[in-house]
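To whoever is on call:

I kicked off a structure prediction for a single chain this morning and the downstream step that reads the tokens threw a length-mismatch warning. I double-checked the sequence; it's 229 residues and nothing unusual in it as far as I can see. Pasting both halves so you can look.
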Amino acid sequence: LLIDKITRGEKIIAVELDPPVDTEIDFFMESAAKLKNLGVEAITIADCPIARARVDSSLLACKLKRELDIMPIPHLTCRDRNINATKALLLGLSIEGINNVLVVTGDPIPTAERDEIKAMFSFNSVILANHITTLNETIFSSPFNILAALNVNARNFDNQLNHAQKKLENGVSMFLTQPVLTKEALANLKKAREILQAKILGGIIPIMSYKNACFMNNEIPGIRVGDEI
């Protein structure tokens, strides 16, 4: 498990790759192979980010595991399937030898598409973590390591910490943070490390240009870029 490597003191580098919007998979696989050769430990795969259909994160995780033998961490959202469908998906992942998942509630459906696409949201990331924990105790011979998100850029970080504690109580053992691009985010990361009894992977994202910084600051939820950057 990923958490075992961190517990042993190994430095973990995990890179998030967005799945393709179509069946052109070569670029995704080539990128993952390059990252593996550079020493990246794991590839995290978003589950239809910003609520737009992309290749299924769990199916891509299975492909990465089989063809590249790199550790995949598929995201599981609570937006597009009910708890029964999620259990079925977890059973399949377990059979494929994938035992790290990141649970997230998921982005809401864009307003313009809500007439055609209905969100599920019959549960949230805390409930999902608890459900996986129960299955770990009753069904899975190889338990899942449950990861969750931690927004170090939140205006009220104490609320984030309280929510993170609930996740821990329901089986989460690791957190991945949003990119740390402000002094406040760094201070929140340090605070989280002191308070939360969990392993934390701090988020890093390269700033490519002034235009890129403005876009991330204004258009991407959960990311804040410091004025000095």
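Update from on-call: the warning came from a stale cache, not from the record. Cleared it. Sanity check on the structure: The beta strands are 14-17, 42-45, 71-77, 100-104, 145-150, 174-179, 199-203.
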